[in-house]
Amino acid sequence: MRLSQFFLPTLKETPSEAQIVSHRLMLRAGMVRQLSAGIYSWLPLGYRVLKKIEQIVREEQDAIGCNELLMPTIQPAELWQESGRYEDYGLEMLRITDRHDRNILFGPTNEEVITDIFRKEVKSYKQVPQLLYHIQWKFRDEIRPRFGVMRGREFLMKDAYSFDIDYESSRHSYNKMFLAYCRTFSRLGVKAIPMVADTGPIGGDLSHEFIILAETGESEVFCDKTWLDKDLTGKGVDLNDRTNLEGWVQTTLADYAATDEKHEAENCPVSGDDLIATRGIEVGHIFHFGTKYSEPMGATVLGPDGKDVPVMMGSYGIGVSRLVGALIEASHDENGIVWPEEVAPFRVGLINLRTGDDACDAACEDIYGKLKNAKIDVLYDDRDMRAGGKFADMDLIGLPWQIVVGPKGLANGVVELKNRKTGERSEVTLEAALNQIGA
Amino acid sequence: MRLSQFFLPTLKETPSEAQIVSHRLMLRAGMVRQLSAGIYSWLPLGYRVLKKIEQIVREEQDAIGCNELLMPTIQPAELWQESGRYEDYGLEMLRITDRHDRNILFGPTNEEVITDIFRKEVKSYKQVPQLLYHIQWKFRDEIRPRFGVMRGREFLMKDAYSFDIDYESSRHSYNKMFLAYCRTFSRLGVKAIPMVADTGPIGGDLSHEFIILAETGESEVFCDKTWLDKDLTGKGVDLNDRTNLEGWVQTTLADYAATDEKHEAENCPVSGDDLIATRGIEVGHIFHFGTKYSEPMGATVLGPDGKDVPVMMGSYGIGVSRLVGALIEASHDENGIVWPEEVAPFRVGLINLRTGDDACDAACEDIYGKLKNAKIDVLYDDRDMRAGGKFADMDLIGLPWQIVVGPKGLANGVVELKNRKTGERSEVTLEAALNQIGA
């Protein structure tokens, strides 16, 4: 992509309405613009990141055999009256009346709709387990939206639902999802630590929040420092072997990690330098809730003994749009964003120090073509403006690699290659630069 | 994908609520389920088709240099009051009041929001033309939703917007989009004919509806039969050469094509057998509307002469979810859907005639693995049920190729290869079958 043809309205000034660094940087980097309180338009740079995150989330859901579908944003009130949540949900639910005076709502979550789909189509124990997910915009009418996309009103969420015949099977579905979450966040280049969470009146131990450590996080968290170096990619785990998977989950969870809700200093098994006390951002939550929805809504299957049984369910959320902000909170410096490779909007930023100079233009076109041929996403700053502004913008938007092309270097047969994360710069031949980037 | 692990609730009975064939087939093939009037959940098979169409639409927008972003579904009423459409739009607009009693709405279209983004970020003639698009769910509260996804209330639409400094430049943007639309529909495997449409009080000739011929279409259309064989891929056209592109557009539009709104029998230049009179489904609309929004909303740029000028705009829509139904209307037979290759949810259906038979299972696993290795999407019917039901389901869901594996054939070293569109079947070796499919 040529920057001259890309819609990238960066800002030099720090917008006064932004209280936290991710919000400031997303506005400054031209990633989002607020349309009204807690509601954002995703400009091209931001939308590229959002889609990359979404795609990684999707691939890891697919990998555990979860089926993707798409439920609509608008839901009928009747389903929520059936589950008993229509009155309970409170003012965060955006309630709407359509032209025929029917009560509808903008879905804040989808337990009711997915249970309705399930109960109409699945009738026998032979058709479960079912794992279904979608990635869809939701709306929660937060009384005081803030922190940009981190606590917006309209937000993109992946929510999955499992349906099983009994607790053991449901626990296996939960464990699959636990593995998928560990792998998802590993691929996203962040450490999201699963912490025991409240199960409410349902009880049991099947509820975990995945939390990214960040000083700007919304809540206090505590964990064993062993988490920092723990490999969460689940290499070699056999998804379909219940015992093997359960073993891996238990081993992974053996080290201490708790939110302030669950943490009790006097009972904490870790202490001193081994205990990390910091803040965290919740980016995922997995939760087994048994028959909470299947019973009132009549989602039953015929068991092997010929009797109808309500299915055991779980729900599994990832805040996709929130993750964009959370990743920035976890990875930035004083000059801007530092994107992990997998979610960077482009892998390489190509800076032409002297647009209009024949040698510089020709060299840049050559590099641009080679990177495109190698299927490496590149943003080519071909704008006719001063070098200082180009450097600042490129650091601000945080692409992993920068190739800087100027007349002096070209005269010596070199370009400058900069690694955004380490800040390391080197003068190398074009071939060496492309090599290092992997082109 | 193994069918035993895929959520595909097909129906034998024809649902009584469906009046047109695409609606019936989408329900029977387990592609969608209605949640409430005009609002559908997209089940996995349907969602795969929707995403394939969306991706083709996206690629052709990107190819003309249109920048993708994403605007939210919920919009503030104020912007519509500025443009003057808040009162005009009528009951089709879903009007909402949030918890702070602010007037908001579920966007039925996005001219106001994109104009707002533009006016805040673009200030100079040097920053135009701008071509921006998004693919987002919209809501129109139709008084009587019907025909399934063809006239639903919540629907997926690609809408693009152009911003130019003057009419000539705006016309060039329009022509680029005209080319992108021709290419998009060609890739989708349907003939969508651009027909002159009403420009309302704005006048001029820059408004075309793209219409798929189908007897179940909503309106009468008339066109020269030369359209049927016309190549609309725009091969060799130079996007950036205004004259070249304008020439191609004019040549393409030289043959007669008009909706009943515009058709006048007595003035029609085509007659007799040369004139096709049938019905059509509108799947796209491109429209130049000048300064209709930029003037009231103050979307101006500083011209080269130092004076502010309101930008010339156009909008360009494609009904993405509607296209799923339209493609089925244009391509089905008495047994079910016949997908064009590019949008088929899977390219190949693999039928195991005797699940549980060692030889059949082994052969199918082998074929399944080979197709997956060749990156060919395959749906493997590994269910333990009678062959008749498998054949019927596979014809119903309309995958382009079927490979049928049974014990008799295997004994002779052959499988059956069926082309869904032509109905042609042949007994061939596995290698020959894979060859023909392109694996």
From TrEMBL, chains A, B:
EC main group: ligase
One GO-annotated biological process of the protein: prolyl-tRNA aminoacylation
Major localization class: cytoplasm
Keywords, in A-Z order: Aminoacyl-tRNA synthetase, ATP-binding, Cytoplasm, Ligase, Nucleotide-binding, Protein biosynthesis
PROSITE patterns linked: AA_TRNA_LIGASE_II
CC annotations in GO: cytosol
SUPFAM superfamilies for the chain: Class II aaRS ABD-related (SSF52954), Class II aaRS and biotin synthetases (SSF55681)
Record field: transmembrane: none
EC number(s) per entry: 6.1.1.15
Self-association and partners: Homodimer.
Function: Catalyzes the attachment of proline to tRNA(Pro) in a two-step reaction: proline is first activated by ATP to form Pro-AMP and then transferred to the acceptor end of tRNA(Pro).
Protein name from the UniProt record: Proline--tRNA ligase
Native species: Thalassospira profundimaris
